[in-house]
Amino acid sequence: MLKTFPKGGVHPPENKLTSTKTIKRLPAPKVVYVPISQHIGIPAEIIVDRKDKVEIGQVIARSGGFVSSNIHAPVAGTVTKLDMIIDTSGYKKQCIVIRTDAKNESNFEEIDFPLKKEITLQPEEIVQRISDFGIVGLGGATFPSHVKLNIKEDRKLDCLIINGVECEPYLTADHRLMLEKTKEILVGIQILMHALRVDRAIIGIENNKKDAIEAFKTLSVQEPRIQVAALKVKYPQGGEKQLVRALLNREVPKNGLPLDVGVVVHNVGTVYAIYQAIQHNRPLMERVVTVTGKKLEKPSNFWVKIGTPIKDLVEEVGGIPEGTRKIVSGGPMMGKALKSTDVPVTKGTSGILVISEDEASRGEPKNCIRCGECVSVCPMGLEPHLLMNLSEKNMFEKAAQEDIMTCIECGSCSYVCPSHRPLLDYIRFGKNITKELQSKKV
Amino acid sequence: MSDQPIIVSASPHVHSDRTSQKLMYDVVIALIPAFLVSLYVFGINAMIATAAAVISCLLFEYLIQKYLMKTEVTIGDGSALITGILLAFNLPAGIPIWMIVMGSLVAIGVAKLSFGGLGFNIFNPALVGRVFLLISFPVQMTLWPTAVENNTTVVDAVTGATTLGLIKEGVQFGETMTEISAQLPSNMDMLLGITGGSLGEMSALALILGGLFLIIRKVITWHIPVTLLVTMAVLTGIFWWIDPEHYASPLIHLLSGGAILGAFFMATDLVTSPVTKKGMVVFAIGIGILTVVIRLFGSYPEGISFAILIMNAFVPLINTYFKPRRFGSKIKAKIV
Amino acid sequence: MSDSILHSVILLSLLGIVAALVLYVVSKKFYVYENPLIAEVEELLPAANCAGCGSPGCRAFAEKLVGTDDISDLFCPVGGNDVMKLVSEALGKEVAEKDPTVAVIRCQGSCEVRPKTTEYQGPKSCTISALIYSGETDCQYGCLGDGDCVAVCQFDAMYMDEATGLPVVITDKCTSCGMCVDACPRDIIEMRPKHKRDLKIFVGCLNEEKGGIAKKACSVACIGCSKCFDICPKDAIVMENNLAYIDPEYCTLCRKCVPVCPTDSIIETNFPPRKEKKVEPKVTAKVEPVKPQPNA
């Protein structure tokens, strides 16, 4: 029996079209648009000005607080303007526009460094560098990584979990990375274990990525502290709380963090970025993006500079096909629909999904038939139909009592609802208002 | 890009291919075996009764939604169709058509649309229609044409009692079970459907077949039917064990009357059953107890319709008290 | 037979007496003293229970009026000065006098002038669609058109204009309770003084973007050109974030700013037609947004 979380979950068609496509490095784009708010928390503060020359990897926006992150120039070039550009949030946000210097070699150098195994830094130095080098969770939530590594003395911690689940349909960025950078990721895990001072790490990978599981198993033989665990294919296994439950049978308390049960979870992409930062002094400037869609000419995985406009990526896979009605940043379950292809790739962009006409439209919502399907698939043990009703009727206090705030917005309820009801739309709305009400009270 | 603007909506951007319409039509498919049996047993009468109920249910839904409520007409969603079929299945063959039409009006108009339509009704519409007819026209509603083997012609002339009716009558007259059982059909006959009773409750086998189809298609879960039948078996079993001369065996109870039809098709109605698994179990136990109590001690020989309707009323309460366990709540402090 | 009648009469009378006694005792024992003024003031209030005053209902507002010594900062927007005057007389406290206000929609972005570039699918609510993105058009400041304001209006004073996709305030019915102002996630609706004959001049745009971008998204957007700012004799116009705002406190309704606006984003209502001006007079009966004119 493969491990999994016990309650709820769905299994949408996987559609991993790009799982065999090697990650291709794209040439540096002519212009990059770097938003200053690419992470959860306080936006970074811009420290460059128009017409400034920037080097690759130079800090261009400084972390605005503890839960914030530095932002580095992904290319060498000139800052042409500080502008408002629409980003994945659907709103225009402040961003730094840099024109790439075509003559600067650093923009085009190969960065496949030889593997470096020795860890020379002290734990504190590692955490400091992760913070300085702008590393955030690359699984999609973009939570600044150093916050997760800053653990107070009195907290007990015994296990590091590496999230290689990639339960979202279509996306293969983590899968390819695990195959192509297996050794680097294993070193990255050791760096994190060193920084956290833990003796145990588990890599959780869903069983539809057998080659990745195999690769890790073979290589981790010399390192008995690192285990590899195959997991049953079920969405949302990649959710932190679900993953901890599946691997260690520990349940993160309501409104708690994995740290409350002695666990820290990091995504494989983050681990690779940490490896690059610690061993090769490279700040977070690029990431793997899966560009996919059933109608695309050649769906692919790319190494992409942060700030590359999405239209450049789509151009690379053969352009937007006829009849496209929706473009999603991220996977189909939790991704955000984009307003246009001018949106730049940010640290949290794990994929671009192009959906054609026949699948883009939502079904007409009908009456709830109280089938209870949303209740049975909710991995958090909530009652989505009830939460939607409460939000719709503005009964936010009652909704808070029904634990609306613990919803992880995985979308399983909306996915299964036979009446096509916009359950998550209303729950998200209810969460937002509840958050406002709670912050008002304080 | 197409000529139309791109769509922006909240996640998720994919949807499973389940729709409420498909669920409804699955139920219709599941009812086909039972319908074929009743067609075999009662001949053209079964067809007439079912057609009358279905047509009048659809018609009333259309008329009321279009002219009275002035809302969107939803007769295509299959729910009125199911109500019609289930209503017919709960009626004796050969009942006058005007009664069927009246039952349909009560089922659709009173039990369903006056609450707001699909999804808002508290009580199972088909059962409300049935119980309304049972109380209003007790004579016609308990005039059971007896199944005559291979009889496909008019059967109105031959009427008899149902298995449960025979038992009730016998017990009231002080007969012992051994005397009564001589008049009862064999268990095999009840399983196959060669017995007296409502249109759809004839063959337990055909109904179980349909029920299994629904479970396989994940329209219903096993919780309600299994719990309900087990509760009934256990309770009747206890009484039978105490005094086999006064109480029929659990097997007779399960195979006779509307037990199977109720367990698989009436109690599991999505709208009027609880949403959580725990709630479903409680709901089914309640129905089981009430059914047995009415069958053994009530004045009606069969009580599952009443039992389901009574428990329907408790569904909101069950939903309030039997919630799924929230992730991360009430866990033992297991911090290593 | 007569016995049974007698018994019932006696029994029922006894029951009645017992019940009366219980009621009497309970009403005396659990009597709650309440200032009769509260009921009196409540009587004066409009009983709309709209919460426009900040209290959750007229009763709560009456309690607040009676219970607070200084009520000069409390005001019933629905009843207006007349009601507050009565309250003042009843309580013998000073009340503030406010100009009557009315809700105005500060957006003219109808489907014609502000083309839709995307299609929103989801619950028809401005607040929910605002959570996902900036709206169907390229303007992230304007009306979303899903009618949250109309839904919250308890006085039927608003409706959605099918043709423009924008909400419309029926000035006569508007009680300026402020529900729509709170409901709008874009803060488009503003309470502005209701002058004589409902004369109003205001900027019908909130787009803070630079002129070119704003104009591209919506042809009647304020482009921040400052022409109105320059011409205003009373310095009532504030320029901020590429956007003009007419401060009602200083505006004297001279109308000089209206014709100079190159994009027609200043709205004037209920004024008589202009004499011998080049610009076409724009007169609307109600607060309806002025029909867009292709570049004056």
UniProtKB/TrEMBL annotation, chain A:
Which Gene Ontology MF annotations are present?
4 iron, 4 sulfur cluster binding; electron transfer activity; metal ion binding
As for subcellular location, the record says:
Cell membrane
Q: What class of enzyme is it?
A: translocase
- Lineage, top-rank taxon, reads Bacteria
> Its Enzyme Commission number?
7.-.-.-
Give every 4Fe-4S ferredoxin-type domain span.
359-381, 398-427
Name any GO cellular component annotation: plasma membrane
Q: Which GO terms describe its biological process?
A: electron transport chain
- Tell me which family the UniProt entry assigns to this protein: Belongs to the 4Fe4S bacterial-type ferredoxin family. RnfC subfamily.
Per its record, how is this protein called by name?
Ion-translocating oxidoreductase complex subunit C
In its UniProt entry, the species of origin is given as Flagellimonas nanhaiensis
UniProtKB/TrEMBL annotation, chain B:
FMN phosphoryl threonine modification sites are: T162
Print the keywords alphabetically.
Cell membrane, Electron transport, Flavoprotein, FMN, Membrane, Phosphoprotein, Translocase, Transmembrane, Transmembrane helix, Transport
Cofactor(s) needed for function: FMN
Membrane topology designation? Multi-pass membrane protein
What subcellular compartments does it reside in? Cell membrane
| Gene Ontology annotations of biological process type | electron transport chain; transmembrane transport
Q: What is its main location?
A: membrane
Look up the EC number in the record and give it.
7.-.-.-
Residue intervals passing through the bilayer:
23-41, 47-64, 191-215, 222-242, 248-267, 279-298, 304-322
Q: What GO cellular component term, any one, is given?
A: plasma membrane
Question: HAMAP family, from UniProt?
Answer: RsxD_RnfD (MF_00462)
User: Which family, according to UniProt?
Assistant: Belongs to the NqrB/RnfD family.
Q: What does it do? A: Part of a membrane-bound complex that couples electron transfer with translocation of ions across the membrane.
**Subunit structure of this chain's protein:** The complex is composed of six subunits: RnfA, RnfB, RnfC, RnfD, RnfE and RnfG.
For this entry, the protein name equals: Ion-translocating oxidoreductase complex subunit D
Give the organism the record lists: Flagellimonas nanhaiensis
Q: What is the lineage of its organism?
A: Bacteria, Pseudomonadati, Bacteroidota, Flavobacteriia, Flavobacteriales
TrEMBL record, chain C:
Here the segments flagged for biased composition (Basic and acidic residues) are 275-289
Q: Name one GO molecular function term.
A: metal ion binding
What EC number is given for this enzyme? Answer: 7.-.-.-
Tell me its cofactors: [4Fe-4S] cluster
| Keyword flag Membrane | yes
- Please tell me where [4Fe-4S] cluster 3 binds in this chain: C153, C174, C177, C180
- Which SUPFAM superfamilies does the record cross-reference, listed alphabetically? 4Fe-4S ferredoxins (SSF54862)
The superkingdom of the source organism is Bacteria
Q: Where are the transmembrane segments?
A: 6-26
Query: What ranges does the record give for the region Hydrophobic, renumbered to this chain?
Result: 1-27
Q: Which UniProt keywords apply?
A: 4Fe-4S, Cell membrane, Electron transport, Iron, Iron-sulfur, Membrane, Metal-binding, Repeat, Translocase, Transmembrane, Transmembrane helix, Transport
4Fe-4S domain residues: 33-93
The record's section on Pfam families has: Fer4, Fer4_7, FeS
Binding residues for [4Fe-4S] cluster 1, per the UniProt record? C50, C53, C58, C76
Q: Where in the cell is it found?
A: Cell membrane
Q: Where is the 4Fe-4S ferredoxin-type domain?
A: 165-194, 211-241, 242-271
Q: Fetch the InterPro entries from UniProt.
A: 4Fe-4S_dom, 4Fe4S_Fe-S-bd, 4Fe4S_Fe_S_CS, 4Fe4S_Ferredoxin_RnfB, Elect_transpt_cplx_RnfB/RsxB
Alphabetized CDD domains for the sequence: MtMvhB_like
The GO biological-process annotations, alphabetized, read as: electron transport chain
Q: What does this protein do?
A: Part of a membrane-bound complex that couples electron transfer with translocation of ions across the membrane.
List the protein's name.
Ion-translocating oxidoreductase complex subunit B
Provide the species name: Flagellimonas nanhaiensis
Q: Per UniProt, what is the name of the gene that codes for the protein in this document?
A: rnfB
